[in-house]
């Protein structure tokens, strides 16, 4: 049904326009009490066995919406209504910015992939903080806040920009993510080098502790799949050393591997980050490496090419406590989260593990034993 709709309507529209239209529908539906109750009952049925505790937070399940879909925190309840157990908003930058010139989002339908060079188009930390402050939650859902660098801020002043966002947003965040892995802000990914990452994470941690004194806001870092293996290890070691709470692996890739089906070479050559199915293998590999390195000392969040329950289950077995998706939501539609939950519950039941927590990292532990 959605597939037909996708091909007849969304596929013929500019992807960014389709995105805004979808968000509008989701918001409108979530604004009408009978509608949202009906939709949530249909799309977000609870599975008791999937209840997840991570980062000191309780969630209905492990599956959330990855950053970038709801950059300005306008559709949190709508996404919870669609069954996402946590919603990561952002990336929010210190200052508002328009992002890169359009066209900047491309669908590679045969490969079930997207290329984007959005460039952190967002309303900025002050406006998003105001919105989060005024929000009256309808659904109880965990809200992650993902922060990044304002484009015009020079790399040397990046720390101050992240600190500004932290001061404004940490109090509204169930967890906070330092994004240093988008390929669309020049120089951003250089911040993944430990010499740059150490002072940045330290300053963000301090700013969060200074501004939120009644609880400790969990802090995570989101990394790129394009890091060399040794650099993945270095970030993992640093995260443990700085007592971070977790790592999100991974962001989009600048590589163009795994794109066998898209015929249009111009599309494949578009600049930006590639997401969706072709990212699956490398994201899983990075996750395995991280788990082998840090075990359960950090909460690992698996993201990149998760299309269905089997992909989510593989990430959990590899070491992810939480999993996220974005691109497959575009292709699978509103039943995406429901299908992931249903399949995860079935897989857990058929597995030797009594709880989801027991399954986390089981495959990687076996492989490294
Ligand atoms: C259009 C688009 C915009 C994105 N924007 C952000 C962003 O602002 N911040 C971020 O950390 N990740 C962003 N991402 C990356 C996703 O959060 C995710 O890490 C990546 O797409 C891999 O997951 P997927 O294969 O399920 O899409 C974006 C992805 C897409 C497709």
Q: How do you describe this structure in short?
A:
With 369 residues, the protein is an alpha/beta fold. Helices cover 42% and strands 16% of the residues. It contains 15 helices and 13 strands.
Defining traits:
Aldolase_TIM, binds flavin mononucleotide, alpha/beta, 15 helices, 3-stranded antiparallel sheet, 8-stranded parallel β-barrel, EC 1.3.5.2, oxidoreductase, 369 residues, single chain, dihydroorotate dehydrogenase (quinone) activity, TIM Barrel, 16% strand
Tell how many strands the DSSP assignment holds. Answer: 13
Task: Spell out which ligands are present.
Answer: flavin mononucleotide
Helix content percent band: 40-55%
CATH domain class: Alpha Beta
Number of domains: 1
What structural category arises from helix and sheet content? alpha/beta
Number of helices: 15
Describe the sheet with the most strands. Answer: 8 strands, parallel, barrel
- Please state the CA-atom Rg, rounded to the nearest Å: 19 Å
Q: What low-confidence regions span 5 or more consecutive residues with pLDDT below 50?
A: none
- Named CATH architecture: Alpha-Beta Barrel
What is the residue-averaged pLDDT? 95
Secondary-structure element string: HHHEEEHEEEHEHEHEHEHEHEHEHHHH
| Cα end-to-end separation | 45 Å
Q: How would you describe the shape?
A: globular
Strand content: 15-25%
Q: What is the CATH T-level topology?
A: TIM Barrel
């Amino acid at each position: 049904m959605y597939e037909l709709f996708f091909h007849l309507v969304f596929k013929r529209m500019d992807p960014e326009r389709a995105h805004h239209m979808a968000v509008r529908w989701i918001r409108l539906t979530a604004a009408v009490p009978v509608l949202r109750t009906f939709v949530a009952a249909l799309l977000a049925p609870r599975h008791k066995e999937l209840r997840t505790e991570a980062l000191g937070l309780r969630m209905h399940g492990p599956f959330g919406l990855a950053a970038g879909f709801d950059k300005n925190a306008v559709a949190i309840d709508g996404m919870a209504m669609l069954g996402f157990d946590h919603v990561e908003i952002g990336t929010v930058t210190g200052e508002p910015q328009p992002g890169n010139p359009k066209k900047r989002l491309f669908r590679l339908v045969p490969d079930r992939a997207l290329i984007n060079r959005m460039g952190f188009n967002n309303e900025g930390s002050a406006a998003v903080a105001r919105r989060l402050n005024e929000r009256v939650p309808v659904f109880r859902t965990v809200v992650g806040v993902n922060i990044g660098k304002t484009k015009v801020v020079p790399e040397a002043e990046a720390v101050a920009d992240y600190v500004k966002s932290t001061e404004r947003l940490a109090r509204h965040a169930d967890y906070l993510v330092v994004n240093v892995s988008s390929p669309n802000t020049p120089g951003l990914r250089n911040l993944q080098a430990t010499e740059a990452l150490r002072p940045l994470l330290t300053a963000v941690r301090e700013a969060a502790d200074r501004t939120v004194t009644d609880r400790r806001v969990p802090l995570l870092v989101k990394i790129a799949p394009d890091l060399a293996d040794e650099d993945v290890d270095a970030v993992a070691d640093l995260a443990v050393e700085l007592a971070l709470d977790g790592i999100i692996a991974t962001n989009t890739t600048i590589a163009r591997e795994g794109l066998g089906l898209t015929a249009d070479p111009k599309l494949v050559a578009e600049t930006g980050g590639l997401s969706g199915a072709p990212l699956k293998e490398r994201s899983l590999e990075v996750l395995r490496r991280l788990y082998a390195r840090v075990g359960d000392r950090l909460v690992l969040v698996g993201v990149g090419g998760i299309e269905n329950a089997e992909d989510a289950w593989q990430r959990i077995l590899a070491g992810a406590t939480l999993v996220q998706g974005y691109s497959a939501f575009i292709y699978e539609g509103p039943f995406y989260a429901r299908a992931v939950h249903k399949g995860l519950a079935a897989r857990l039941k058929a597995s030797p593990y009594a709880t989801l927590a027991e399954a986390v990292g089981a495959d990687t532990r076996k492989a490294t034993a």
